[in-house]
Amino acid sequence: MAATTPELSRRIEEAASGYLLARCSGPGNPLGTQVLKRGAMFATKIPRSPQNGLMNSVHGLDDPAWLPDVVAFYAATEQPCWVTVPPYLPIAVTDALCEAGFRVESYSSAMVAEPVPQASAGSVDVREIVRADLDAFLDTMNLGFDQDAALPNLRRNQSFWCDVPDWHLFMAHVDGAPAGAAVLSIHDDIGYLAAGSVLPVFRGRGVHAALIAARIERARARQCRIVCGNAAWGSQSQRNQQRAGLVIAYVKSIWTNQRARSAPSTT
User: Fold this and answer.
1) Which CATH class is domain 115-224?
2) What is the mean pLDDT of residues 198-204?
3) DSSP run (H or E) holding 117
4) What is the pLDDT of residue 263?
5) Residues 22, 23, 28, 33: is their CA dihedral positive or negative?
6) Which long-range contacts (CB under 8 A, 24 or more apart) does 175-178 make?
């Protein structure tokens, strides 16, 4: 694996943020996402979910001069935001965040590897889904993230997932039963290991590892040069990716102007 450089780091961040933009404002924009763009920076805002740190986030804030526009964008609907700060951004950005009342809330590991074939997943059967499987896939994904209160609403909001170009959706089964679900998003020659979850009853049985392996193999078949992913620093997801051969390319900080809140999801 080639050494991490600012250029590679930028490409990894572009893959991650490109996936997020598609997830927030895909075909039909069912979430009603508002987007602010300044140069390479974009910010996504979902007023009906103001506490969601993943959906109300800022990426590519290279120029601190854009920060007042960002703050005003979220202040218009009286909601906070979360700013991703990878290590290649200039110190002037963090200085501006401090002056604007932001603080570091959490850290996220950016993972990377070359897409080499993975070992067999044993008893876990992982397959790429077709449209007829979408509802089962989405329910498995959301239950794996412990979101079981409003499955019909989530299903409706995510109904476009089969229509996003260069997304591949995978579902894992154990003994014929749905066990986990995950997304691979392709960005040029980079495969991004996006959202992935495992149902509570199947955790600790290699399902997450099998989903990672299947996505790496698909990325290899798509002739991706690297695969990458994100995980909360020190999390089980980070450890699972490391076991699959990914290494930490860099650690980035997540800043927010909201107080006393748990860390946002990084999937």
Assistant:
1) alpha beta
2) 95
3) none
4) 46
5) negative
6) 175/123, 178/136, 178/139, 178/140
Residue 73 contacts residue 43 (beta carbons within 8 Å) = yes
Residue 102 has a pLDDT of 98
CA atoms within 13 A on the CB side of 231: 23
pLDDT level of residue 259 (50, 70, 90 thresholds): confident
Task: Classify residue 99 as exposed, middle or buried by CB count within 10 Å of its CB (0-12, 13-18, 19+).
Answer: exposed
Instruction: Give the start-to-end residue ranges of the domains of the chain.
Output: 6-109+251-256, 115-224
Report helix, strand or coil for 106: strand
Q: With a cut of 80, say whether residue 1 has pLDDT above it.
A: no
Regarding beta strands 82-85 and 247-256, do their DSSP bridges make them parallel or antiparallel, or are they unpaired?
antiparallel
How many Å is the Cα radius of gyration of the chain?
18
* Number of Cβ within a 10 Å radius of residue 266: 24
Q: Quote the pLDDT of residue 120.
A: 65
Q: Is 42 in contact with 60 (CB distance < 8 Å)?
A: yes
Cα of first residue to Cα of last residue in the chain, in angstroms, is 23
Report the b/e string of 229-242 with b at 16+ CB within 10 A.
bbbbbeeebbebbe
Question: Quick one: average pLDDT of 256-263?
Answer: 69
* Mean confidence (pLDDT) of the chain: 93
